[in-house]
Design brief:
With 310 residues, the chain is α/β, with parallel strands linked by helices. The protein folds into 2 domains: 3-221, Spore Coat Polysaccharide Biosynthesis Protein SpsA, Chain A; 252-305. Helices cover 45% and strands 19% of the residues. The protein contains 11 helices and 10 strands. The protein has an 8-stranded mixed β-sheet, sandwiched between helices. Helix 10 (253-283) packs antiparallel against helix 11.
Length: 310
């Protein structure tokens, strides 16, 4: 097998079958699929086991509930060691039929790249397209740093460390395909982090560029079960991840300079975004919400003008 696909699944009986079917529909067939049931209390494991009995490329594994990151790490540990690439697919997302073919071709054409990623589109709980073009535009509209300036990133350029730090353009893990050798170098996904996916992509980008494919490769399901309301937890996690990265001894001096500039740009962008939200709240008479967003905007802008990257 050339590609190991890992699906962490927790109480996924409503979506898992469709996700597995999207793997079975791939135009590239040299894959193995590991479904890690993370302590589900519904019919998730039965669904996974049924597919495993029908197709020898599929394995269904069980573990006590330990979280999505731990399930992904278990999948990597159980994957065929000789597989060249690894893909992490969420239990409710859907691959496009040519996702593996397109992403593998990008890596085969650029042996220096540690990974490759494409675009996502939004679907709802029933699999219907929602917010058309929104995810595609966000993933495509990358911003990078040249010197101390933030610039629009060319579509034919890879996603670099600085691009990832200016904004999270990989919305869901199924957008990407990772070289197994690079994955072994960076180590496991950190289960202690709320935004563990972003941290993992940043650690990969320290070791090399991530190829970019201007094609939708995955449908990202947005529904009540996965729409996080933990805004403070996300913000705190991103702050911690940036601090950790800038303090990392693995960064070269040039990487540290570029990363600092990218973080400063992100703070200026966030200040403007919060200010726009405050204006919207004021326009609708939500004074307390507007005041809250103004405080956030002031904090981001203060850090920016003082040149404090986190």
């Amino acid at each position: 097998m050339t590609i190991s696909i890992i699906i962490p699944a927790y109480n996924s009986e409503n979506f898992l079958a469709a996700t597995i079917e999207s793997v079975l529909a791939q135009t590239r067939t040299d894959w193995e699929l590991l479904i890690i049931d993370d302590g589900s209390t519904d019919g998730t494991f039965s669904i996974a086991a049924c597919y495993a009995a029908r197709d020898g490329r599929i394995r269904a594994l069980r573990q006590a509930n330990a979280g999505c990151a731990a399930a992904r790490n278990r999948g990597v540990a159980e994957a065929t060691p000789g597989a060249e690439y690894v893909a992490f697919l969420d239990h409710d997302d859907l691959f496009e039929p040519d996702a593996l073919q397109v992403l593998a071709a990008a890596l085969e054409g650029h042996p220096e790249a540690v990974a490759a990623h494409g675009l996502a589109r939004y679907i709802d709980g029933s699999g219907r397209a929602i917010r058309p073009g929104e995810a595609e535009t966000w993933c495509r509209s990358r911003i990078g740093v040249v010197g101390s300036r933030a610039v629009a990133w060319p579509l034919d350029a890879p996603t670099t460390l600085a691009v990832l730090l200016t904004g999270i353009r990989i919305l869901t893990p199924g957008q990407g395909l990772i070289r197994r050798s690079a994955l072994d170098q960076v180590g496991p996904v950190d289960p202690s982090l709320y935004s563990a996916d972003w941290d993992h992509w940043l650690r990969l980008a320290v070791r090399g560029d991530i190829g970019f494919v201007d094609r939708v490769v995955v449908s990202y399901r947005r529904h009540e079960g996965n729409m996080s309301r933990q805004h403070k937890a996300v913000a705190d996690s991103i702050y911690h991840i940036r601090r950790k990265l800038l303090a990392s001894p693995e960064l070269s001096e040039e990487q540290r300079r570029v990363a600092t500039a990218a973080c400063l740009h992100a703070q200026r962008f966030n200040a403007g975004l919060r200010l726009a939200w405050a204006q919207d709240h004021l326009a609708h008479g939500r004074i307390r919400d507007a005041a809250k967003q103004l405080r956030h905007a002031a904090r981001y802008y203060y850090r920016y003008i003082r040149r404090r990257p986190v």
